[in-house]
Amino acid sequence: MILPSASPSTLTHHPSPSSSSSLPPPPPFDERELKRQRRKQSNRESARRSRLRKQAECDELAQRAEALKEENASLRSEVSRIRSDYDQQLLTENAALKERLGELPGNDDLRSGRSDQHAHNDTQQSGQTEAVQGGH
């Protein structure tokens, strides 16, 4: 009988009898060995549960971090919007106040009077300073 040729990748691997993974564990010889094997198995299962618990905590923290990032972005956007609205409100109010100030009767006289008074005060102060310095 002629067998079809098979490439190495299509062949299935059958473990040899000398392979340690295919052999069952040796039978326990005494009660101490049996207890040791049970303890080892219990420790493996405990470690596995611990790893699963740690992974679940990690996943939960990652989800919480993502939710907090989204909330932070949302709050920053809201703060920006509120600032923009407030800035616009202040500009509008400032313009209205300037307009009202310009409508006051005699406003130009008040402004020029203040400027003249400031200039007069400055002249008086410099004259007094010169007199004090000249007298000493």
Q: Which oligomeric form is depicted? A: single chain
What's the overall average pLDDT, rounded?
A: 78
Largest sheet: none
Low-confidence stretches: none
Name the helix and strand elements from N-terminus to C-terminus, one letter apiece: HH
Termini separation: 136 Å
In percent terms, what proportion of residues is strand? under 5%
Shape: rod-shaped
Helix content: over 70%
Number of alpha- plus pi-helical segments: 2
Structural class: mainly alpha
CA-based gyration radius: 46 Å
The strand count comes to: 0
Describe this structure in words.
With 136 residues, the chain is mainly alpha-helical. The chain has a domain at 31-115. Helix content is 75%, strand content 0%. It contains 2 helices and no strands. The chain has helices at residues 31-103, 107-135. The protein is rod-shaped, with a radius of gyration of 46 Å.
Write out key terms for the chains shown.
75% helix; mainly alpha; 136 residues; single chain
